Amino acid sequence: MIEQEKLSQAQEEFKVCIPIFTALGDSTRQKLCLDLAAHGLEGINVADLAGKSILSRPAISHHLKVLKDAGIVEPLKKGTQIFYRLKLKDALIPMKTLIDTVEEILEIETEA
């Protein structure tokens, strides 16, 4: 039988991951992440991202804010412009923790 403590831990970890799931659950933001990945560590600005999309600059900025708030994207100021790049390593730590907890729960369940 699964320990209530482990289930409570997983529930809390799911809550921590909600912003990440929300940010990455949108296909437009998924495409933006891929566009950012293609530009590597130098990043790309909103104008150039808008040029690759049918979305307006304000719409791109909104999606970038959601990604930034989730810790998935970071802004880099270069002169008067702001460039954005992916920052996945730190952002995905809560998801890795959640996956580890769920795997522990599954191991407990299969052992029972």
Describe the protein in words.
The chain is of the alpha+beta class and 112 residues long. Helices cover 67% and strands 12% of the residues. It is elongated, with a radius of gyration of 18 Å. The protein starts with a helix and ends with a helix. The model has no long low-confidence stretch (mean pLDDT 92).
Strand content: 5-15%
**In sequence order, what are the helices and strands, one letter per element?**
HHEHHEEHH
Mean pLDDT: 92
Terminus-to-terminus distance: 6 Å
Tell me the radius of gyration: 18 Å
The tally of helices reads 6
Overall geometry comes to elongated
Strand count, sense and barrel status of the largest sheet are: 3 strands, antiparallel
Short description:
This protein is an alpha+beta fold and 112 residues long.
List strands and helices in order, with pairings:
Layout: H1 4-24, H2 27-38, E1 44-45, H3 46-51, H4 57-69, E2 73-78, E3 81-86, H5 88-91, H6 93-111
Antiparallel strand pairs: 1-3, 2-3
Helix pairs in contact: 1-4, 1-6
Descriptive keywords:
112 residues; alpha+beta; three-stranded antiparallel β-sheet; 6 helices
